[in-house]
Write a structure and sequence with these properties.
The structure is a homodimer. By secondary structure, the first copy, chain A, is α/β, with parallel strands linked by helices. Chain A has two domains: 192 residues, Aspartate Aminotransferase, domain 1 (Alpha-Beta Complex); 229 residues, Aspartate Aminotransferase, domain 2 (3-Layer(aba) Sandwich). Chain A contains 18 helices and 14 strands. In chain A, β3, α9 and β4 form a beta-alpha-beta unit. Chain A starts with a helix and ends with a helix. Chains A and B meet through α1, α2, α4, α7 and α9 of A and α1, α2, α3, α5 and α8 of B. Chains A, B: Belongs to the class-I pyridoxal-phosphate-dependent aminotransferase family. Alanine aminotransferase subfamily. Chains A, B: It comes from Dinothrombium tinctorium.
Chain lengths: 521, 521
Amino acid sequence: MRPILRHLIAACEWQTLRMSLVSNAILSSHVLDRSVHTTRTMGAEEQPLVTLSNINPNVKRMEYAVRGPLVIRAGQLEKELQAGKKLPFDEVIRANIGDCHAMNQKPLTFMRQVISACANPDLLETDLFPSDVKERVKLLLSFCGGRSVGAYSDSAGVEIIRRHCAEYIEKRDGIPTDYLNIVLTTGASEAVRAVLALINSSTADGIPTGVMIPIPQYPLYTATLAEYGMTSINYYLDESNNWQLQIEELQRALDEARGKCNPKALVVINPGNPTGSVLTHDNIKNIINFARKEKLMILADEVYQHNIYAENARFYSFKKVMHEMQVKLELASLMSASKGYMGECGLRGGYCELLNFDPDVKAMFFKMLSARLCSSVLGQIAMDCVVKPPEPGDPSYDLHEKEKSEVLESLKHRAQLAADTFNSIPGMKCNIVAGAMYAFPQIILPEKAIKAAQSLNQAPDFFYAMNLLESTGVCIIPGSGFGQIPGTYHFRTTILPQPDHLRRMMEKVKKFHVQFLEKYT
Amino acid sequence: MRPILRHLIAACEWQTLRMSLVSNAILSSHVLDRSVHTTRTMGAEEQPLVTLSNINPNVKRMEYAVRGPLVIRAGQLEKELQAGKKLPFDEVIRANIGDCHAMNQKPLTFMRQVISACANPDLLETDLFPSDVKERVKLLLSFCGGRSVGAYSDSAGVEIIRRHCAEYIEKRDGIPTDYLNIVLTTGASEAVRAVLALINSSTADGIPTGVMIPIPQYPLYTATLAEYGMTSINYYLDESNNWQLQIEELQRALDEARGKCNPKALVVINPGNPTGSVLTHDNIKNIINFARKEKLMILADEVYQHNIYAENARFYSFKKVMHEMQVKLELASLMSASKGYMGECGLRGGYCELLNFDPDVKAMFFKMLSARLCSSVLGQIAMDCVVKPPEPGDPSYDLHEKEKSEVLESLKHRAQLAADTFNSIPGMKCNIVAGAMYAFPQIILPEKAIKAAQSLNQAPDFFYAMNLLESTGVCIIPGSGFGQIPGTYHFRTTILPQPDHLRRMMEKVKKFHVQFLEKYT
């Protein structure tokens, strides 16, 4: 990071973010409540008991841009189109969230066959499914209570699925893995929230627990830290260097935070969301050394581990690098069935591996999770199909490999298309999309546009994104929802629309951007 | 409640509960971590960073008995039996948790056909399913992103399912219902946790937010309140009066709590868990008047609304009674796909209706939920089949009605069997099981048994339950996990084992109890 930018951070960042929050909050209450106002007719004698002034103030503070006002507005526009209203576009393109199937990615045949027969074992009596599907279903059901996916699993998940996760990690990293360290979760989000809840001693200490998070970041982190009254220690990823993570910037962020909070954990998202970057082996090594020196546990968000596109990039797990270094630091590594080539977001499958944790602490973690009973058993089964896909020789193998490689190959092309298009637009620049599912281009906004935004009490990039949506139907999320160096503006778009769709979208963005610049210059 | 008992409460209750917590915690860490100890070989130079002394103290305090040490021990015994070890019994009977399918209840055909075809729409091309199943699947998928259950839904759930929930409530109560007040959740547990998080202003106020909960209660409530640093205001249900809820006891509990916390909500579980009681219309009316007078919102846990067995009992929703009274108090009403006659616990479907909430507050609630993205779409679909079952004339109707009534009829017989058997055992007495899925008999423990328990630092009823498990393989949960008047002892058992199974279990409990009394008298 350039030193000249650093001193800006403390001064401006929160102001920019706050402005965005305010405008978001106003809009979101406005949009959500229209219909409610009409149904609420509380008698004059009865005043509301639960009000904005007495609810949890942390809930008021939290913000979650990828599901925020832009997305709500996109939904309204879709309904207007359906109702036949004339708009300047004929479709809404939802590039706001990494939701593969919503963008018409086809589910994997093997996984959906397994899930359907687990839900309805009568199907095992038909000849609809290959033998490996039937065998998997019988194996999985034999580990479910009453052989039904309708029974609760253990809080940590169905034993055989935890074992399969452990085998997957062993195979990936070449390191023995204990299935008792694995817990199956509702996507990866639940694991993030649980780990942060576990280490949060803000109330007890009177000093907020601090967690280092990358900026830009996936807003689950800031939202959860806000909800829990914890402090985000923001470290900036280096945009001028393909969003790599610089150790000196980690140090700067931590040094500035010490005394203001009690730093306990370092979050790393690799491959990066929203940046699309992939950390190098050396980089991970340095991060681990930093965490060790500074006594921070590591929360490795590795949900995009299958999404690597750049020729020279490779996924290294924090577990593997830590093992090579013979370091034994507490590590929580997260995985999900929602991303990768399967993209099964709606099934809510995920797992978390807890490594090197004190056994007593781990017992507390498991106890805490037991209060939510268990994650969806069908979501766990989705995770099973991810960590244990058909093997060579299995009847489902060829089709599964074909489906998987087609998705990944297509995403690779779309990653390239997105970055190339953005770089061809005047006033826009974009790093290579080396992994994950997003591009995060920087946009240069004219002074007049910034002023127009401010007059509406909106963050400039929110103003840009809302204009884009209203003019073209393209829904992207402004950089202020993820964090960015103050005075810079970005947006995040997924690369998930199908190729033709993505091309159309890129043309719309390009045309809009040129017109926007003309209007405000 | 007898006045003589009241003064005991403040003095003894927490001591009894704490004793149980201590013994539970010791056992649970011991059991969970055996295998972990062998895999953890941290170098001498690296000390654990995350320890019991620096994690979230609220997590340490929370306790969740229905998934606690007894259940873990039951799992071990099952494994020992499988491995051929000789034990005093040949099966473990898990009567610890309301997990219908684990107890071999058969899933409903209609629901499982819909779920399997939603997961695998290729099945629509076969002639395996009746037309109403296929139509439902097509309708549901038309409301999913990319027509796939793998797409995220809106945070509040799939629109058509929310609408079906609203129709269900309208039909049940005869009151217009706005689908925008419905949010689909991961079981009912997620809704409980979200509502409590919303109203928790403990940190901001410096005074803990208080929530009135019944004792005995479902331990999700105490666990969540502990995790959130909130205060449980315990009101005792009247065991001598079939566990009815007495207004004077609500008043006593609240009066004693005022000044120590900031009471904001009243939780009512109806039909009752673990008590099996069903509130009368009059009782609900008085509770609403109390809440209104004391300015408390109501959290109505109504997940057992289909489970009514007693001839003179009927389910009245808080919504319906409030509507009749023309009272407009904030009400959160919870429902689940896990209970009733469907018992689909593993699918994690549920909904929450928020009634009479300030629109701004509701917007905050929805925003908070958006950070967890959405609940399992297949779980939502399970909920859809519950709220919109086949109708007369539909091809699936007859079979569905037959399956449903068989389950409910059988549960009714088992409810009677359980209470009758317990009442036939010397030193045991049990209220009528009018609804839900549990019996909560009181047991008179001899002084010698209490002393034996204390010498092991165990709550006496925990000692009893562990002895029962080790001698007979029957896993029930001691009353101390739910709360009880100090000096009284209970246990909760589900009535879910299939009829023959339940009879065998009852005989085992009877025989054990007699021997236990002989040994300790």
